[in-house]
Specification:
CATH topology of the largest domain: Amino acid/polyamine transporter I
Largest sheet: 2 strands, antiparallel
CATH superfamily of the largest domain: Amino acid/polyamine transporter I
Strand order of the largest sheet: 1-2
Helix content: 55-70%
Radius of gyration: 25 Å
CATH architecture of the largest domain: Up-down Bundle
Oligomer: single chain
Order of helices and strands: HEEHHHHEEHHHHHHHHHHH
Number of helices: 16
Length: about 550
């Protein structure tokens, strides 16, 4: 994602200085922080130590601030974006750009699991839950946006939501927000590793078979015709990995050797280490920020793929509210919390929404633009989830065959799925170092005061994160499960608890708290808690 500003009056934001090793610029690879700006940064830190951040009496004067070309806004997304303009105290982005940025930020790997989540909840229940979760998370996000303005007598114009949490809850709010932020980051990185292993395996398999002119048939139930759909989960009685049989004349030794060394869970996750671990240790992942547009391209292509597949497969639906048969699932299922866990992460933007909206040229439109962005995100999830579920060929296959990654329902030799996997693999390999960079900045700076204390510290952290990804890809390659666990965990704090508690406390301090407001927000907190507990019970 590309956030850009154009300030003439850089005092309007007073953004803090970012060290050269922590800068990610989308414009060039040069580290643009001068020695003079670095010295200014030390003086700013000196002023900040003289009094609390809430005291405006000893704020750093103008001549201590870095020059306009040295100002960066650090985003919780893991990047530091150069500020280009800031007329009248705000960014230059129009409402359309702001809406698109929010949409682009929220659209992630969760979209691949939405059809599976709808299957787990039931078709009608799934649609209702997507709408309700979208509305609920939008309201909580609205409370996050308004949280700074509820604080009286303090200039909170440069505050992020973790700063608000620290104001209300002290060190507990600071450390808990760090903990839940790390859960979301590491959870996303684990999901990425599992998906990259999956996409790399299928891509390598497709290329090998194409180059060697090998006709391979998956040993799984599936449909016939040009738009083949398979049911990998139904082949549990077969070897769980490279479920294929070769049809060719001659010596099959080479193919068997390839199958042995190119295994989805036993070998491919380890091959990724050689590529991604060195990239994680780079001080500045600025190069990878240039490829953020691939996220948009990937989502657009997925929508195109879903549309084409549905047009070829047709609609296959049958409505049974509480009973299921061999091919269809009920409209309501007790497993629906699995979908709400996924949706909590799918609609999660609460830890960085203030940064995104702060750059809106027309601040009075923030609520409207945020609502429109959420509507478009929900519409995208609904379209992909509903179309995949409705067009899944039942019969001959059961709706239970819908995989946690719906691309797994298309064979490795499917051309459109191959292109989608290529797009997603390359996009994830460029985003993964950015996520690792953000995890490093948040964790190491908190403990050591430096995002890159030494290569040893960074290497230990990265080995631990990569090890978690490899372990999951090896023993628990279920992205739907990983997404719902991490989503419900981090969402409990950032989506449900903190926004509601902060609102209730601020109303209480202002003497405006009413019983309806208290009951409603306690109910929201209980929903978040129930959402988390349900993930471990179902």
């Amino acid at each position: 994602m590309n956030i850009q500003f154009n300030p003439e009056d850089f005092k309007c934001k007073r953004p803090f200085h970012v060290e050269p090793t922590n800068i990610v610029t989308v414009n060039d690879d040069m580290q643009r922080v001068t020695d003079e700006a670095s010295a200014m940064n030390k003086r700013i830190h000196y002023y900040s130590r003289l009094t609390s951040s809430a005291d405006r009496a000893l704020i750093a004067p103008d001549h201590v601030l870095p020059a306009p070309d040295e100002i960066y806004v650090y985003s919780p997304l893991g990047t530091a974006f150069k500020v280009d303009s800031c007329p009248d105290g705000y960014g230059k982005n129009s409402s359309v750009v702001t809406i698109f940025m929010i949409w682009n930020t929220m659209m992630g790997t969760s979209i691949l699991s939405i059809p599976w989540g709808i299957k787990q909840a039931g078709f009608t229940s799934g649609i209702i839950l997507i709408l309700l979760m979208g509305i609920l998370t939008l309201y909580c996000c609205y409370r996050v946006v308004k949280s700074r303005k509820m604080i009286p007598l303090i200039d909170t114009s440069n505050w992020e939501f973790p700063d608000v949490c620290k104001y209300y809850f002290g060190s507990f709010g600071q450390w808990s927000s760090l903990l839940f932020s790390m859960v979301s980051l590491v959870g996303a990185m684990v999901v990425y590793w599992v998906l990259m292993s999956n996409f790399l395996f299928n891509t390598g398999r497709f290329i090998y078979n194409f180059v060697h002119d090998i006709n391979v048939t998956d040993i799984v139930p599936g449909t016939n015709g040009s738009s083949k759909v398979i049911c990998p989960g139904a082949a549990s009685s077969h070897p769980p990995q490279n479920k294929s049989v070769i049809f060719s004349s001659g010596n099959n030794t080479g193919f068997e050797l390839f199958e042995e060394w190119w295994n989805k869970s036993q070998t491919v996750p380890f091959y990724l280490i050689a590529v991604l671990l060195p990239l994680l240790n780079l001080k500045s992942p600025s190069f990878f920020a240039k490829f953020n547009v691939l996220g948009t391209v990937s989502v657009v292509y997925l929508v195109f793929l879903v549309t084409v597949k549905a047009a070829r497969l047709g609609i296959h639906l049958e409505y049974n509210w509480f009973t299921e048969n061999d091919f269809f699932v009920p409209e309501f299922r007790i497993l629906f919390p699995q979908l709400t866990g996924i949706l909590t992460l799918a609609f999660f933007i609460h830890n960085c929404v203030i940064t995104l909206l702060q750059n809106n040229r027309n601040q009075e439109n923030n609520v409207r633009d945020l609502s429109i962005a959420y509507f478009l995100v929900g519409l995208t999830y609904l379209y992909v989830g509903v179309i995949i579920f409705a067009s899944f060929p039942s019969p001959p296959l059961s709706k239970e065959c819908i995989e946690q990654n719906f691309l797994d329902n298309f064979p490795s030799n499917d051309i459109m799925s191959f292109v989608a996997r290529i797009f997603l693999l390359f996009q994830m390999m460029t985003v993964y170092p950015l996520l690792g960079y953000l995890a490093r900045v948040q964790l190491l700076r908190q403990f050591f005061g430096n995002a890159y204390p030494s290569i040893f510290h960074v290497l230990v952290l990265n080995v631990a994160i990569v090890g978690a990804g490899v372990a999951m890809a090896r023993f628990y390659p279920n992205i739907g499960g990983i997404i719902r666990y991490s989503g419900a965990t981090c969402g409990l704090a950032f989506v449900f608890v903190y926004p509601s508690l902060i609102y209730v406390i601020s109303l209480h301090r202002a003497g405006q708290l009413t019983w309806p407001a208290l009951i409603i927000h306690i109910f929201i907190i209980l929903l978040g808690l129930a959402n988390l507990i349900a993930q471990f019970l179902l």
